[in-house]
Amino acid sequence: MFLMAQHSPLLPTAAGTCLLLTLAGCGGDNPAQPGPSDGPVVHSVSPESGPLQGGTSLVIRGTRFAAGAQVTIGGRAASDVAVQSADSITAVSPAAPVAGAADVVVAVAGRSTSLRGGFTYVAAPQNALPVVESLTARGSRPRQPANFADLGEALQVTAVVTDEETDLEDLEYDWTATLGTFTGSGRQVTWRAPAAAPTPVNVTITLRVTERFGPGSGFTHEVTGTRTVSLHDSETEVGNMAERFLEEFSQPQSNQDWQDVMADFDVDGTTCPDPSLVDDERQDVIDHYEGFFMHEYTIGAANVTIRFEGSCTVPGRSSRPGDACVNVAVRWDSTEIATDTRAVVTGTDYLSAAYSSPQRRWWLCSSDFRSSSTFRHRFYDR
Q1: Distance (Å, whole) CA 212 – CA 245
Q2: Do 328 and 346 touch, CB atoms closer than 8 A?
Q3: Can you tell me the distance from the alpha carbon of 230 to that of 195, in angstroms, rounded to the nearest whole number?
Q4: pLDDT tens digits along 165-209
Q5: How far apart are CA 186 and CA 242, in angstroms?
Q6: Could you give the 3-state DSSP secondary structure of residue 331?
Q7: What are phi and psi of 341, to 5 degrees?
Q8: What is the DSSP letter of 56?
Q9: Burial classification of residue 277, based on how many CB atoms lie within 10 Å of its CB (0-12 exposed, 13-18 middle, 19 or more buried)
Q10: Mean per-residue pLDDT for 356-370?
Q11: Nearby residues of 304 by Cβ (< 8 Å), 6 or more positions away
Q12: N or C: which end of the chain has fewer CB within 10 A?
């Protein structure tokens, strides 16, 4: 029995026969409702434009996206492609040789779709780079040198930055260092040195400044500035120098070279406030080895006080200028060669030291012994 024509229209086919249309059709999917075997569809790309150098983070919206999807823009593969869901992909635009609209193509399992002109490459507008004019790191101790720190110390780090087009508050500031930590943000932060580290050591502090400009702030400039901070354990370093000097001075060899004994003294006269005190000590060392033979000695632990551009007190004598002051208990048992007189002297040696910013190290500047024993020796107590 045949259906009525008004309910079932007959259409001619290529074979000259008629195709009976029903609500279900004659096999295949309804074009208005594609089946699961159809490929992906791209509806939009956000943002719609970016710089020629690439690097724009994109969100691609559509349907039927799946794992393993590939994205090209203008025929060049996008990077960092990640399928977030069946209707969302994130990717990063590749670089392009010329400005203009580019097709965005998404391929899934060998089937692809294109959004014609879906992304536009834009040539960078004229924009001057930011400039990091200076970086300064300074501690809180009076007269402390810039770009100097002791272990565990906090320094205020300040950047002077200029930019012709962008407000300084709209720039991005990223601070890093080879050692230590930062607190704060912007052009002035606090850097704290580590509590422990091999010293002395140079620490590089780096500031990266990012400027975003152009349409949608899609263009960026990045510039960096660096500052080297000399990190010390000053009390230990100065104390070690003082003890090492007194150990060398007290050796029993009668032919000791004064240059070896005074290896940590500022013999070149470039750092210590009063070079004559170094000269005086050199003569004392020479006289000591020419006139005395040491039998036994005891060198105590150094007590160190850091006071930049201060003065060091020596009982019974004028103060000695220095950035650090040291006192060390000593005991010497020696024989004076000329008189063949043996004597034991005890007391305290007072030393001063100065810090050299250009050399980034400490130097000893003076040494004065004051006896605490009943016996007074004409050389040691002069």
Answers
A1: 57
A2: no
A3: 15
A4: 999 999 999 999 999 999 999 999 999 999 999 999 999 999 999
A5: 42
A6: strand
A7: -105, 125
A8: -
A9: buried
A10: 96
A11: 234, 235, 238, 239, 242, 324, 325, 326
A12: N
- Residue-range domains of the chain with CATH: 36-122 (2.60.40.10), 131-232 (2.60.40.10), 234-371 (3.10.450.50)
pLDDT at 59 over 90: yes
Q: Which residue has the tokens 């007290």?
A: 250
24-49 per-residue burial string, b: 16 or more CB within 10 A, e: under 16: eeeeeeeeeeeeeeeebebeebebbb
Two tokens, residue 129: 């780079």
Long-range contacts for 341-345 (Cβ within 8 Å, ≥24 apart)? 342/295, 343/375, 343/377, 344/373, 344/375, 345/371, 345/373, 345/375, 345/377, 345/380, 345/381
SS3 (DSSP) at 223? strand
DSSP state of 58: E
- How far is the C-alpha of 261 from the C-alpha of 247, rounded, in Å? 9
| Percent of the chain topping pLDDT 90 | 75
Amino acid found at 178: T
**pTM strictly above 0.70:** yes
Instruction: Output DSSP code: residue 141.
Output: S
CB 130 within 8 A of CB 171: yes
Place of tokens 């008004």: 6
What DSSP designation does 238 have? H
Q: Is the pLDDT of residue 297 over 50?
A: yes
Identify residue 117 by its one-letter amino acid code: G
Residue 86 has pLDDT above 80, yes or no: yes
CA atoms 34, 35, 38, 42: torsion sign: positive
Q: Which of 99-103, 124-128, 210-214 has the highest mean pLDDT?
A: 99-103
SS3 state at 237: helix
Closest among 81, 71, 125 to 99, alpha carbons compared: 125
Locus of tokens 């354990």: 233
